[in-house]
Design goal:
Blueprint (H helix, E strand, L loop, with lengths): L1 H15 L3 H21 L7 H5 L26 H17 L3 H17 L3 H24 L6 E8 L11 E6 L5 H13 L5 E4 L16 E10 L2 H12 L15 E10 L15 E13 L5 E12 L1 H20 L6 H12 L6 H9 L9 H28 L5 H27 L2
Parallel strand pairs: 3-4
Antiparallel strand pairs: 1-2, 1-4, 2-7, 4-5, 5-6, 6-7
Length: 435
């Protein structure tokens, strides 16, 4: 029972700090304990593994010790209590707008109710299930959900204690908490007990030997973003020149264990021009955490890290794939979002804003590029073709929704697009001739 009390207290703390996702996971952790008890006592409505699909972290947590059933003679350890905990978790997940995870938990609730022949509650649960599905569809259509911010934090110095000194963590915080605000929050948290605290807002590798650890303590803070399965798949496919399937690549913020930091990279120490795409590589550092986020806590320790270096060709492919997806994503809106559509159009077609697509096409398609495979060249050509097609579609949509005052903008973007298309088509033709 004390284990449940601990979870309840932690959940209340998370609610106090306006962390509904973390509070939901305390409820799910409590539900896993109840289900573990029911399974061990021979009265489980479904296998524990079923719930672990929604609470993967529970497999790494301390479970129940060996027990006598009489020790747990309480309303806390019943099937009704299990359903109640799962329903409370769903409410919190909906508050956090984690609709996909809420749907997963609803499916577990429905399975429990069905096996218990509790059809009256099933009717209510199915109604709520329909509602959350509708909210998910609306949220994806309107793209109204703000993604959380994630920061990697490194702690260096004896003042942090042996358990924290030299350790790295990934923090999940509200989308409203910028790097500057997060820095102030951590400084206030640790600076209260630690003198001579220095904060480094960078993701660069730290040479611990160069730090003045005899007199100071250090916090390193750097923004990271989720490294999803789709992102990992894209890295593999860009390396081989295999086309990434088009479509909706959105992945919800659930069960995230890998996070990435990206930075421009070049061989040697010579600085590169921003427009010299033929030599611009990219460095990715991928951090894997011990638990997935969201979790009952808002920070989890980093378990391992790996580094990827994207070649100049792979970097160019990734940049164009991102542009294609941005256009495709904006064109999904019905009705169109005029302001956002025009911003994407200007960023894609107007050379004064960004000459990237033309420069990439000329550097990697218009002439032979050492180290670039034929498959990568074909893949980049197909991305360029998709990019031009989507730009045309976006121009057509914008033309159909603007009023007279926006005609000059439309004419300007159409002119820029025409000039860009001629140059990119020429580069595509040159690449085809290299086969």
């Amino acid at each position: 029972v004390s284990t449940q009390s601990t979870g309840e207290n932690l959940g209340q703390v998370q609610r106090t700090h306006d962390n509904p996702a973390e509070a939901a996971h305390t409820k799910l952790h409590q539900a896993a304990l109840v289900l573990q008890y029911l399974e061990q006592s021979g009265d489980s409505p479904l296998p524990l593994d079923t719930l672990l699909a929604a609470v993967p972290n529970h497999a790494k947590e301390l479970g129940l010790p060996p027990f006598e059933a009489t020790e747990f003679a309480s309303k806390v350890w019943t099937k009704d209590a299990l359903v109640e905990l799962l329903q409370e978790a769903v409410t919190l997940l909906e508050e956090a707008r984690l609709y996909e995870e809420a749907i997963t938990v609803y499916q577990i609730i429905l399975a429990v109710l069905q096996r218990s022949s509790n059809y009256s509650l099933m009717v209510e649960a199915l109604t709520d299930f329909k509602t959350v599905c509708e909210r998910l569809v609306a949220a994806n259509t309107n793209q109204e959900r703000l993604a959380s911010n994630y920061y990697r934090v490194g702690l260096y110095g004896k003042a942090f204690g042996a358990e924290l000194d030299g350790k790295e963590f990934v923090y999940k915080v509200s989308a409203r908490l910028t790097l500057g605000h997060f820095q102030k929050k951590l400084t206030a948290q640790f600076g209260h007990d630690i003198d001579n605290l220095e904060v480094m807002t960078t993701n660069k590798d730290i040479d611990v030997a160069s730090l003045d650890l005899a007199n100071k303590s250090y916090i390193q803070i750097g923004a990271v973003k989720p490294y999803t399965d789709a992102a990992a798949k894209g890295d593999r496919e860009r390396a081989t020149g295999t086309a990434v399937a088009s479509g909706d690549n959105k992945q919800s913020e659930q069960h995230l264990r890998r996070f990435v930091f990206e930075a421009a990279h070049s061989q040697g120490k010579k600085a590169l021009s921003e427009d010299d795409f033929s030599k611009q590589q990219k460095r990715k550092v991928i951090f894997t955490t011990a638990q997935s986020l969201p979790y009952v806590k808002s920070r989890v320790p980093v378990e391992s890290r790996e580094e990827l270096i994207l070649s100049a060709a792979e970097n160019a492919i990734e940049m164009m794939a991102d542009r294609v997806e941005k256009l495709r994503s904006e064109l999904r809106f019905n009705p169109p979002r005029q302001n956002q559509l025009q911003q994407v159009l200007a960023g894609s077609c107007v050379a004064l804003v960004n000459g990237g697509p033309v420069l990439i096409a000329e550097a990697f398609l218009g002439r032979p590029q050492p180290g670039m495979t034929s498959a990568q060249r074909q893949y980049l050509s197909s991305l360029m073709d998709s990019f031009l097609s989507l730009c045309r579609a976006a121009l057509s949509v914008n033309k159909g929704i603007i009023n007279q005052s926006m005609v000059p903008f439309q004419n300007m973007v159409e002119k820029s697009y025409g000039e860009m298309e001629i140059k990119i088509r020429a580069a595509i033709a040159a690449a085809a001739a290299m086969k």
